[in-house]
Each structure stands twice: as structure tokens, then as C-alpha cells.
Design goal:
The protein has 346 residues and is α+β, with helices and mostly antiparallel strands. It has one domain: Amidase signature (AS) enzymes (Alpha-Beta Complex). The chain is built from 12 helices and 10 strands. The strands form 2 sheets. The protein has an 8-stranded mixed β-sheet with strand order 3-5-4-9-10-8-6-7, sandwiched between helices. Strands 1-2 form a two-stranded antiparallel sheet. β1 and β2 form a beta hairpin.
């Protein structure tokens, strides 16, 4: 779990563009494998940006489909109401073909949609004269790298020159996105990962002399520091006396965020943002406050909170030759339009 991919049991995943930097997370292994040519395409799981953020850091395409578009059967659940599986590839065409293959209803996943999946690989949809919004609060956020901001504004001008309408609008819930996401996702993680106890599923510690030791040692050894932190946070927000103050309030906020975003997409075809606020950071960086790391998800969690499809498409490398990306979000189940527009204009 997390945006760095430094917590893997195999050690940190290295960015193919600079081995001293992270690949992003949590699907950084998939993104690094595609970016370095180890494979043509890979799958990732996106709970708060875990496909799109590493895709941005590694300079590849990452697609988070609409929630329920792809079956989650076989996925080790982090947060069941957020998780979605999607492709990471070197180009839109490869991502579209894989998405076409993996989409559709699955009897093994009751949350998977029965809505017929489109022939995404054809990308046969009208994308002329689109209306696109971007959030003023995102672009003026103090954590956004100035070079990424400048390239983003250049992209806005390019889209306008191609006949599209691009307008700044206000999104009042920016400061609530990450807190809402982490309260809800950690609560779900606490519940989902309780089955990995050495008795029901997964790893079992051999250094145990009693049933209680088996539980304690298994979960102590089997989970890394960041996973434990999220389980404990989730257990706290679900505990008696705090459930209403945190979990219930976060659920209400999630509904408000979704209603506001649906309202925006009733007037616009797409919302465009940077994928990440900066390029890949150095491995082993001294981040003493874990909440600072959680802010890595500030531009990506919106699509997970609302369930909308989103894609991260590489932009031109910065002066230090490190990649970054543009994110595009659209209405639910409009992946074909999302991919077609991204291929043509991003």
C-alpha cells in the first residue's frame, strides 16, 4: 500500500527513468515493468490512484475504469467500494484492447456491472468540439510543481486551439478529498484484511505456541509498516465512540462529492487535471509525517470516491528528463470516449 512502493517484501521498486527514484504505487511494479520493456502491458489495481500515479511517474498510460466495469474476482481487496482493476500500457491502443478483454459482468463478483462493454479497441466515437473543465483549486494548489503547472496550461491552450472549449471552474471539496478517502478506505482495509490471520487465509507464522500467538505473530510478521498503519487507522474510525464522528461523516461527504461531480459532468464532457503534483521523488526520502505521503493522491482520489473512469496519459518530459502526466476523467461507462479523446489530443 502507498504511493512510494518502497514497502515491498522484495525491496523498493525502482523507476526505470532514474533508479534513485520511486516508481510510484501501489502498482509501481506493473508500471515499471511496462516502462522498462519487460512486458507490453500489465494490470494494476487502483484504489486511490494506484494505477494512474505510477503510470505518471514511469511515463506510461494507466486506465482506471468505471467502478464495476471490471470484475474484482481474484483481487486481494484493499477497499472494496474503491478498488478497480485496469491496464497499464505504453499507448492508448494497447490499453483499450486489454480493457475490452477484461471488461464485463462476472458471476463471481456481485458488484460487477451487467452493462454491455463497448468495443474499446475500435475507439469509434465522436470527440470533436468537446467541453472540458479544470479545477482552479487544483491548478493553484501550493503543492503543484510550477513546471508541471506550466505544461498543464500549455495543454489547455492546445486543446482550445483544436476547437474544444476549456474552462476553469471551482471545486469546493478539494481539501476534503484525501481525508474522506483515507477514513473510508482504511476502514474497509481493516475489515477486508482481518481474514488474513494465519487461520483463514494467507501467510502463517511458524513461531507460535498458542492460538493467540498465531494471530499476533502472523499479522505482525505478514503485514508491513504502512499496511499496519492503515489497518489500525481503519479500526480506530470504526470503533465505538468514533464511528459516527469519522466513518459516517466521511460517507456523507463522499455523497456530497459525488453529487457535485455529477453536476459538473452534466455540463462538461471531461474534467482535466495533472495526474500528480510533482515528478517521482527519491527513494528513501525522509518523510517523517505519513500524512504528507497521503497527499500524493490529491488529484487521483476524486475518481475513486465517485467511481468515474479516468486515464493518465504521459506529457512531454520535464527538463530533468523525468515523466509526468495529464489525467482525464469522464462520465461513468464512457471509457471509449475517454480513450479516443486521450489518443487524439493528449
Amino acid at each position: 500500500m502507498g504511493s512510494a512502493n518502497e514497502n515491498s517484501v522484495y525491496g523498493p521498486v525502482k523507476n526505470p527513468h532514474d533508479y534513485s527514484r520511486v516508481a510510484g504505487g501501489s502498482s509501481g511494479g506493473s508500471a515499471a515493468a511496462v516502462a522498462s520493456g519487460l512486458c507490453v502491458v500489465a494490470l494494476g489495481s487502483d484504489t486511490g490512484g494506484s494505477i494512474r500515479q505510477p503510470a505518471s511517474f514511469c511515463g506510461v498510460v494507466g486506465v482506471k475504469p468505471t467502478y464495476s466495469r471490471v470484475s474484482r474476482f481474484g483481487l486481494i481487496a484493499f477497499a472494496s467500494s474503491f478498488d478497480q482493476i485496469g491496464p497499464i500500457a505504453n499507448n492508448i491502443d494497447d490499453a483499450a484492447l486489454v480493457l475490452e478483454v477484461i471488461s464485463g459482468h462476472d458471476v463471481n463478483d456481485s458488484t460487477s456491472s451487467r452493462k454491455q462493454a463497448a468495443n474499446y479497441s475500435k475507439l469509434d466515437v465522436d470527440i470533436s468540439n468537446q467541453k472540458i473543465a479544470y479545477f482552479s483549486e487544483f491548478i493553484n494548489h501550493k503543492g503543484l510543481d510550477s513546471n508541471i503547472k506550466n505544461q498543464f496550461l500549455e495543454k489547455i491552450d492546445s486543446l482550445k486551439n483544436n476547437g474544444h472549449t476549456v474552462e476553469p471552474i471551482s471545486f469546493p471539496y478539494l481539501d476534503f478529498l484525501v481525508p474522506t478517502y483515507y477514513v473510508l478506505s482504511t476502514a474497509e482495509a481493516s475489515s477486508n484484511l482481518s481474514r488474513f490471520d494465519g487461520i483463514n487465509y494467507g501467510y502463517r507464522s511458524d513461531n507460535s505456541n498458542s492460538l493467540e500467538d498465531t494471530y499476533v505473530n502472523t499479522r505482525s510478521d505478514g503485514f508491513g509498516k504502512e499496511v499496519k498503519r492503515r489497518i489500525m487507522l481503519g479500526t480506530f474510525v470504526l470503533s465505538a465512540g468514533y464511528h459516527d464522528a469519522y466513518f459516517t461523516k466521511a460517507q456523507k461527504l463522499r455523497r456530497l462529492i459525488k453529487e457535485k461531480f455529477d453536476e459538473i459532468l452534466s455540463s462538461y464532457d471531461f474534467v482535466i487535471t495533472p495526474t500528480t503534483p510533482h515528478i517521482a521523488f527519491k527513494i528513501g526520502g525522509d518523510v517523517t509525517d505519513p500524512t504528507q505521503m497521503y497527499l500524493e493522491d490529491i488529484f487521483t482520489v476524486l475518481a475513486n470516491l465517485t467511481g468515474n473512469p479516468a486515464v493518465s496519459v504521459p506529457s512531454k518530459n520535464l527538463s530533468n528528463n523525468m515523466p509526468h502526466a495529464i489525467q482525464l476523467i469522464t462520465k461513468s461507462f464512457e471509457e471509449e470516449k475517454l480513450l479516443a479523446f486521450s489518443k487524439a489530443y493528449l
